[in-house]
Write a structure and sequence with these properties.
Mean pLDDT: 86
Largest sheet: 4 strands, antiparallel
Order of helices and strands: HEHEHEHEEEEHEHHEE
CATH class of the largest domain: Mainly Alpha
Low-confidence stretches: none
Helix content: 40-55%
Number of helices: 7
CATH topology of the largest domain: Arc Repressor Mutant, subunit A
Distance between the termini: 44 Å
Strand order of the largest sheet: 4-5-6-7
Number of domains: 2
Number of strands: 10
Oligomer: single chain
Length: 200
């Protein structure tokens, strides 16, 4: 079933009264803009996957959207087949999670509540940092290439993404590894990054 909301207020009402697999969200809406809606949804615990579909294509817009809590970001003009493929991927991610808590060493990631704890201590992450950590956690013990990470964060087409990714990795390390042992977020030179598995 597909519902359509013609402005931000209607979108707000529908998001609160139905259980959607994915919400496609434009940033430019009458009555209330998409980023404001998304930020409030995430603050209030809405866990539905959100794909931003917008004409705003700058790296700053993409980073802002992902940091507000978007799971994917696609710019206009777009090819319908790509949109449908991205929606299928988000739906699979929703339906195929058997254990909602990912664990390695003393790190716990609750994928339903989108919360993170290490050594029993709650760690606050931005939505973009969380998306990056969850990706690494789902492949813990395995190297995830930079291109795979960039594709997952929907930022791979932008110049300067490598530096943006380095910044996110640095912030994540400060929050996940600083003050803990062993370090969990590892770099494999010229390959990518991995989250240390229990056997590593």
């Amino acid at each position: 079933m597909v519902d359509i909301a013609r402005d931000g207020q209607e979108g707000e009402d529908r998001a609160r009264t139905a259980d959607y697999d994915v919400i496609i969200l434009d940033l430019i809406l009458p009555r209330e803009d998409g980023l404001s809606l998304l930020g409030r949804w995430r603050r209030e615990g809405l866990t539905c996957h959100v794909l931003i579909l917008t004409a705003r294509s700058s790296i700053e817009d993409k980073v802002r959207g992902l940091d507000k809590g978007a799971d994917d970001y696609l710019t206009k003009p777009f090819v319908l087949k790509e949109l449908v493929a991205r929606l299928r991927a988000l739906v699979r991610r929703s339906h195929h999670v058997k254990d909602t808590v990912l664990r390695t060493h003393d790190l716990e990631i609750d994928t339903r509540a989108r919360t993170v704890r290490r050594g029993g201590r709650a760690i606050h992450l931005t939505p973009c940092e969380y998306a990056l950590l969850e990706l690494l956690a789902r492949h813990r013990g395995q190297v995830v290439s930079r291109s795979r990470i960039e594709e997952h964060l929907s930022m791979g087409e932008d110049p300067g993404i490598s530096n943006v990714l380095n910044v996110h990795i640095g912030h994540l390390r400060n929050k996940i590894d600083k003050g803990f042992a062993p370090p969990l977020i590892l770099t494999r030179r010229r390959q990518g990054y991995l989250l240390r598995g229990d056997q590593d």
